[in-house]
Amino acid sequence: MKKVTYTIHILLLTLMIVAAGCSKKDNKFLDTKPETFYTVDNIFSTSAQIDQAVVAIYSQLRDLWANPNEENWIFVFRGNGTDMYDVPSIRRANTFNNYGTINANHGTFYNAFSTWYQIIAKANLAIYSAELPNISWSSPVEKAYAVAQARFFRAFAYRNLAELFGGVPIVTDITKVARYDYTRATRIETYQYAIDELLAIENDLPEVTATGGRLVRGAAQHNLCELYLAMGTQLAADGNGGAAQAAFTKSIEYGNKVINGGTYSLMKTRFGARKTEAKGNVYWDLFQENNVNYQDGNKECIWAIQIDYAAYRAEDTRSKLPYSRTYGPVFRNGAPAHLQGTAEDVGGRGISQINPTLYTRDSVYADKWSDDMRNTDIVFRRIILGNVSSSPYFGKPVPWSELYNNKDNQSLDYPISCKIATDKYTGVADGENMSNLFRDDYFIRLPETILLRAEAKQRSGDKAGAAADINLLRERANCTYKVTAADVDDKFNLILDERTRELVYEECRWNTLLRMGGTIAVDRIKKYAFWPEAGATLNTPYNLWPIPQLVIDANKDVKLDQNPGW
């Protein structure tokens, strides 16, 4: 496949390394008269090329979620440093819980900020180019869908920026010269911009597609549910209760469109490629190869990352989910007298870039919460058989009291989720070493929509409705304990706990915690962080990440205010 490399970098504020210009008078020998010169007005000549520009955004988002290059800042984006994840002892240098070293100069903030603006720049380029007079489209529908995808990505980027950083500069045009005068919109304005974008293209997205991975209407409606919820939460924090309630009503409305619209439904019976295997259950089925896409018969998949093993073997080395490697435990280091190797019996070739906190792996399932399909051994495997012949536990379950016999071991040894490992690794015959999964993965799954609607109901004062939504998931998971309105606490612990049980290794936890505002993020980090650094150093309350200091410094013509607490 031929690939076009675009050298038009239109990143907001973050590419402010400006070379000194050469004097034309003194440097005539540098003048050239190129036969061709690519600009934003002639770089595209066909509608297929514009579609490829859109595909480039899909590809970047796949890499952002799956993190095939194992970038530490992406592990933070996906949840390292929250209540759900920390780092093992062998990776303490990568901690995101030591607030003696976390400040506005931290590279994670810059990388996250600039990545979302890269996506905005690509979307702006595709939108602009779709209107060029030399582009021929097969039909108005083809053009509308191309533009709708690009506008969705732009809205998606601003939703993420607003949840993480608050109000940010809104850039909607191609930038052809360096600028140093950007101004921040408010968080409300940023949410509203993303809402307006999605409302404008909602009906240009198809209800379903023939193949997996492409955007559908449900993805826009899910994001509208989240955006109205986020905006209502901020409006309430600002003291605008009436507007907040109107936003929560809209959030519920868009949640209803997805949940009750007839396209999507929770999978409640066995399905897919391995449904006849007695050892599985329906939740396990959701995470098996060839089961993830809506087109595979999975009615709760709204939008999925596409992973292609053939493409990986041929040329696309990033077409993989390195989850067994990056998220997997390291029993061979934590309990070498009892467990060795890198095969299926120990969850593959794990190196534990981040690990689940004790809250995520254990306490969220304590007591009455333990009887839960999501806590069964096929889904969250806790029975690990000793495989060292000299061990007294050879061929028998190694007790967790043995695995947890010191803090270091406790950080390396933990249950194995079916979302990050499998008993049937693709590619072993080709020399693959059980580091990677080659299945598709979820960007959006219906249970998250249900939990967003539950939160909107709670914030509207309908705790019984929130409990009923949570029970939709608990009933599917065959939980003995069903929640009631009395369980719906004002600190949103119930919803956050249920998100942990349902969406571990799926949601971007920082977005969730920071979107909720108040002291929720700080309180939960201090309570559940695996290592003591957070408790000792997290002394400043905050509910937004800082605007990267490099961005503030580069925007020399207009002062960008820093977020409180930084």
TrEMBL record:
Establish whether keyword Membrane is in the entry.
Answer: yes
The record ties this protein, via InterPro entries, to:
SusD-like_N, SusD_RagB_dom, TPR-like_helical_dom_sf
What GO terms fall under cellular component here? cell outer membrane
Q: Its principal location?
A: membrane
Where does the record say this protein resides? Answer: Cell outer membrane
User: Which portions of this protein are annotated as coiled-coil regions?
Assistant: none
Where's the SusD-like N-terminal domain? Answer: 28-221
Q: Which UniProt keywords are given for this protein, alphabetically ordered?
A: Cell outer membrane, Membrane, Signal
RagB/SusD domain ranges (all copies): 399-566
Does this UniProt record's set of keywords contain Membrane?
A: yes
Signal peptide positions (record): 1-19
Its domain of life? Bacteria
Q: Which PROSITE patterns match?
A: PROKAR_LIPOPROTEIN
Protein family: Belongs to the SusD family.
What is the name attached to this protein's record?
Glycan metabolism protein RagB
